[in-house]
UniProtKB/TrEMBL annotation:
InterPro entries linked: NAD(P)-bd_dom_sf, SDR_fam
Pfam families tied to this protein: adh_short (PF00106)
Superkingdom in the source lineage: Bacteria
Protein name: Short-chain dehydrogenase
Native source organism of the sequence: Ancrocorticia populi
Coiled coil segments of this chain: none
Classification lineage: Bacteria, Bacillati, Actinomycetota, Actinomycetes, Actinomycetales
Amino acid sequence: MFLRARRRQTCHPCHIRCGPGLGRSVAEKFGREGYTVALVARNKDKLEKLAKELRREGITAHAIPGDLMASAEIGKLATHIRQTAGDPDVIYYAPTSPDMTFVPAAELTPEAIEANTTLLLTTFAALVSEFLPHMVAQKSGAILTAQGTTALQGTPRMSGPGPAMAAQ
C-alpha cells in the first residue's frame, strides 16, 4: 500500500499486496487519518472491489493491478503508482502468495526459495529503490513491512519464507 496524506500535499502511502484482512485494516486506518491509499495486488477485480468499498467509507483509494512476482517490471509498476497517486511517503509491504507455504526443511525446494526471495526481498528492494529518493528529498517518509515470526526464529516443520523475510 502506498499512502499520501491529504493534509500535506507531499505525503501518501502505498499498500503493496492489499488483501481483505490485514491489508484492508491498514488501508482503512491510514485512510481515516486522511491519507490517499494506493492499493496494489494481482487480482484486478478484487482490488477494484476493495477500493470501491474504501471510497464508500470516504477514503480516497486507487486500485493499481500489479504482479509482485515480476520484479523486473517494478519500474513500470512504480511509474503507474506515481501517475495515479503520486510518489508515496509511506509504503506498507506485506505480500503473500498462494504458493508461499511452510513445509519441513527436507521438502523445501530451490524453486520455492527463489519464489519467496523474489516476492519478499527482491521486489521489496526494487520498490524501496524507486520510492526512497522521494522520501529522502522530502526529509519525511516511512517504509513498513509485516513479516511472520519465522523471520526471527525458526520453527520445526515451518521452512519456507522465513529466510527471505529475515533478509528484509
